[in-house]
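CORE FACILITY INTAKE
Project code: CF-77B
Contact: R.S. (postdoc)
Sample description: multi-component assembly, two entities in total
Requested service: structural model of the whole complex
Turnaround: standard
Below are the sequence entries exactly as provided by the requester. Do not edit them.
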Amino acid sequence: MTAAGLVKCVVWDIDNTLLAGTYLESGDEPPGADPVLTAVLAELGGRGILHALASKNPPEAAAHTARVTGWRFSAAECGWGRKSDALTRIAGTLGIALDALAFVDDDPYERAEVGSALPRVLVLSPEEAAEAVGWPEFSPPVITAEARRRGEMYAERQRRQEAERAFGGTREEFLESAGTQVTIAAATTADVPRLAELAVRTRQFNSAAGRAPAARPGEAGPPGGGMTQDWFQGLLTDPGCDVVTVRLRDTFGDDGMVGGCVITRDGRTWTVPLLMMSCRAMGRGVIDALLAWLTRHAARAGAGRLRIPCVPDGRNVPLRLALAAAGFRVPGPPPAAYQRDLGTPLPALPGWVTAPGERGGGTGGGGTA
Amino acid sequence: MNRPGPDASRTGTPGDAGLASVTDDLRAFLTSATGRDELLHLPPGAALFGDAVGLDSLTGTLLLREIQRRFGVDVAGEDLNLDSLATLGTLAAFVAQRARPGAPQ
């Protein structure tokens, strides 16, 4: 399987799953942690997999579980509603697709409810979860610095979202006030592991997702189908090719490398065989900045047209929206590429974007203050 | 897929209540999603991408999800190029023509 098979977040039941007993039926002293599953939490967390809670209990049960397992959960849903609804809310809160969730519960009824309402979620019993550390769904091919910080970054994300809700103005004004800094730069060898990780993990913002395997060398195939570290390394030394990274930070935290793209230059037509961004960066101006910069960069170099092959499907709607917003159109029936004529007026780039060929960092107040 | 149901022809008639109420619903949603109160009076000819509304991948995804929930119309599935998102008016017409009978409140 490709990217779709990787689990990004495990949603755990509490009673008789993470706890060795039932929270509300234990009298004065709530039960301790299940030692086997506590070890599983740590092992998967070290691989960059997030953990969340979904429990039919009062919220204090989540705090107790965090205490006895020593784990900081990225989201917790406590209440008496359906667990499938809890998982849907967790996926929304964390910005993770439902098919990147796994769900662990000792109660066969709950497993059946989630399995039937959300067939894309991987549903496991606690016994299966203990074995799952060896399964490919829980074994990302590369584990980067971004992966190890992922739990922290989701906590920063929650603080940022709360601040944005409290903020009165528009999103653009919020991004500016949060000290958003987007840095676009040429990739180096040190960036290769994270580029390969993004190629495997991204789906909603991955132009190559759903595509048939590469027809010839240098062309991008589907994620996980050849976009390995070796593939990226080879592109770095290819004179007809540019590999670009996108980094993101603000006053709430540093998200590291959240996106990238590959550019091939063929006379007056430039093609982007791969454009990708972590869905964690959604709503923070990153994809729009990258598309605007690509358009300006290609036009400055004398190109007349920019092409971005991308197969429209139900899952890359966010990327399709970004492409449409940036003036890209598919001129014919699929699988034609998105393209943009560079003769039309070029898009502006916000002052908080630093990129090759741009004056950079000027008006946005990001700077070094 | 086309749904030539009885309501499809009725809501498709220019100037009828279906189109007007879809337009109002879209205005209300865009206002709450962007925090821009002036969008409550957005003219039908206003472009959704660009400065007036500033629809992006996040607000756009939320908008399409809300349209699917409220009207049962899968805009992204039926319009691969998303040309229907050109203006408020084109989107409202696209949705009103396809709205599932009984779906809007």
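Facility notes:
- Confidence is low (pLDDT under 50) at residues 1-17 of chain B.
- Chain B touches chain A at residues 34-36, 49-50, 54-61, 64, 76-77, 80-82, 85 (CB under 8 Å).
Invoice: internal transfer
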